[in-house]
Amino acid sequence: MTQESKQWHYHPELPLQDPSVFAKIKNPKAILKWFVSNWLSLSEFVLLVILSLALWLLCYPDIEETQSAAAGWILQSLVTNFFLVLCVAGALHSYFYIRNGQQKNLKFDGRDQTRNNRSFLFSDQVKDNMFWSLSSGVLHLTLFQCFTFWLMANGHVPVISIRQDPILFLLGFILLPIWSALHFYWIHRFLHMPFMYKRFHSLHHKNINIGPWSGLAMHPVEHFLYISSLCIHWLVGAHPMHVIFHVVWLGPGAAMSHTGYESLLIKDKRKLALGTFYHQLHHRFFECNYGNQEMPWDRWFGTFHDGTEDATKATRKRKKAMYS
User: Fold this and answer.
1) Which region, left, alpha or beta, applies to residue 31 given φ > 0 means left and ψ of -120 to 50 means alpha?
2) Residue 250 has pLDDT above 60, yes or no
């Protein structure tokens, strides 16, 4: 066992390989395999689309209602988003950290969530994370979503019809995670500039040992920048369900990717991909893996940490240079 491996309760095989579809762009079979795995099976992508459909039909206001800035439909959206984040992050936290439903199988960091630490609000990591997620996080999700709905309802931005544009409608769900990953990488790099990091992003990075509530636990300035990913719908034609999917991806999706576990196990079989060691390394070593493993940016721009000791040394050297 290497020195690097001893730091972790669990990690995948190291060094990390490149699972990005962009690394296989000239291989049609690999692209087809990626598509089938992500979109023709019960993946996190498909589950979030199903959740978005249910929310569109049952919970959010009809787009016609959003033509005027009336308090009723805005409050309806706010309450829906509040319970959406509460239920998804709460259910994941309850299963993994209260009921101990999976013990520590596939958990990257073997430690429990932090308590009695005054760097967190209420001296408790979970309570701190819940506060930021359910206050500023939900508020920013709602503000961007409601303004986007208002723009759509009043014809200020192009709107896609399922009946008239079925291919564009389906394609939107495939492209949105790719756009979100691109936006996240560059916003994240900006937030790691020393000025921005010390004042804003350091709040999120108190969560070295992450849990479901850590995903959306951010400073309000970071929430604004992170959720500004929704502004793509102000420029490119979309359906209201795309906006909802985007909201779900940025909100509850962040809780899923920050569980601290690689996958959900059912009868010892991996049934749902959750967190990645790729992002867990970012929370441990900070100045690496700013994006996610589906996009090539970290590899292209020299900020990739592959989980090895050499990569850790390079990351620490880069961090020292940034703050010197």
Assistant:
1) alpha
2) yes
